[in-house]
From TrEMBL:
<dbReference type="InterPro" id="IPR006311">
    <property type="entry name" value="TAT_signal"/>
</dbReference>
<protein>
    <submittedName>
        <fullName>MBL fold metallo-hydrolase</fullName>
    </submittedName>
</protein>
<dbReference type="InterPro" id="IPR050114">
    <property type="entry name" value="UPF0173_UPF0282_UlaG_hydrolase"/>
</dbReference>
<keyword id="KW-0378">Hydrolase</keyword>
<feature type="domain" description="Metallo-beta-lactamase">
    <location>
        <begin position="54"/>
        <end position="277"/>
    </location>
</feature>
<dbReference type="InterPro" id="IPR001279">
    <property type="entry name" value="Metallo-B-lactamas"/>
</dbReference>
<dbReference type="InterPro" id="IPR036866">
    <property type="entry name" value="RibonucZ/Hydroxyglut_hydro"/>
</dbReference>
<dbReference type="GO" id="GO:0016787">
    <property type="term" value="F:hydrolase activity"/>
</dbReference>
<dbReference type="Pfam" id="PF12706">
    <property type="entry name" value="Lactamase_B_2"/>
</dbReference>
């Protein structure tokens, strides 16, 4: 499952790795595709930008004419307190959305990708879908939860993994994935929905995981980026994705066997690695992310040992990154 044939030749990853080593190389692939055809439209790599929204959330802007197209992944920016990071987690914490804050950070998306249905991934999506008309791509569980919260059925695309969806200016590939495991080899609110819930969700415990996905977004003539929402994966589903950039969730425990080396080998050791889901997502985006005690350093050490030619980018909330995940000036 790959978009290399449609979106540029195999040299793009080499170019990204060259940039990681300081080589002065272009990021725009050759004009001809792998099928020998010249794309009808060209999009300069510099016209794509990324912003980290914390947790596993991202905003991707494809700047072009006549308008900028925005794709979101797991846009959770309200970031309310449940006590999770202070040892006093309350599963009955009410769900709420700071609408002004969401508008400020999320813009007006045309597509929202949801990796799974836990609150720190889905919470702000119902408001975004209702207020912008954006298409939401997610699991059957995501579908039923959104319907119970007033999102129109026609806005929601249910996927399972393996789908390749063509949009104007970019392609989204869906991969089956897995949720992180805690030290007891389990996780919060497992389960799936095959029908709308009896009542609309009101608390964080009302939102089950509902299966987990990953998304690979490939803008026209620009590097591809994989987005993970949790620190486990389906190794067979990930082989063949070969993203140029990988937003990889930092493991929350050591329960998953050889998580980092297995993951990076399955992905073909991407040219750029970006650790995500290591920050305290109950602190506002106006504060810098806390790095101490998050498992980030261990992830970085393992990544360097497994894929030394990959460029590691530790993101922050305020930086706008270009198509190659370098800060834009």
């Amino acid at each position: 499952m790959t978009t290399h044939a449609r979106h540029g030749g195999p040299g793009r990853r080499t170019l990204l790795r060259g940039a990681a080593l300081g080589a002065a190389v272009p990021l725009i692939p050759a004009a001809a595709s792998a099928e020998g055809r010249t794309p009808a439209r060209r999009r300069r790599a510099a016209a794509v930008s990324y912003r980290w929204l914390g947790t596993s959330g991202w905003r991707i802007d494809l700047h072009g004419k006549p308008k900028t197209r925005t794709v979101l992944v797991d846009p959770y920016v309200t970031r309310f307190d449940t006590g999770l990071f202070t040892g006093s987690f309350d599963p009955a914490t009410p769900l709420r959305t700071d609408e002004a804050l969401v508008r400020e950070h999320a813009g007006t998306p045309e597509v929202v990708c949801v990796t799974h249905t836990h609150w720190d991934h889905l919470n702000d999506v119902p408001y975004l879908a209702r207020s912008t008309g954006a298409r939401v791509i997610g699991t059957e569980t995501t579908y039923h939860v959104l319907r119970s919260l007033g999102v129109e059925a026609g806005q929601i695309s249910v996927v399972k993994g393996g789908e390749v969806l063509a949009f104007d200016g970019y392609v989204i590939e869906v991969a089956s994935s897995r949720h992180s495991r805690n030290g007891s080899y389990s996780y919060f609110t497992p389960g799936t929905l095959h029908a709308p819930p009896a009542a609309a969700p009101r608390t964080v415990s009302d939102l089950p995981e509902g299966d987990t996905l990953a998304f690979k977004v490939t803008p026209d003539d620009a590097p591809s980026a994989l987005f993970m929402g949790a620190s486990d994966f389906d190794e067979r589903s990930f082989r063949g994705l070969e993203p140029d950039i990988a937003m990889v969730a930092v493991a929350s425990s050591a329960s998953t066997h050889r998580y980092v080396p297995r993951l990076l080998d399955a992905l073909g050791r991407p040219g750029v690695l970006v650790p995500v889901h290591w920050d305290d997502f109950e602190k506002p985006l106006s504060r810098p992310p806390r790095k101490d005690g998050t498992g980030l350093d261990d992830f970085l050490a393992q990544a360097r040992g497994t894929s030394p030619r990959s460029r590691l980018v530790v993101p922050d909330y305020r930086t706008v990154y270009g198509a190659d995940l370098r800060p834009r000036r």
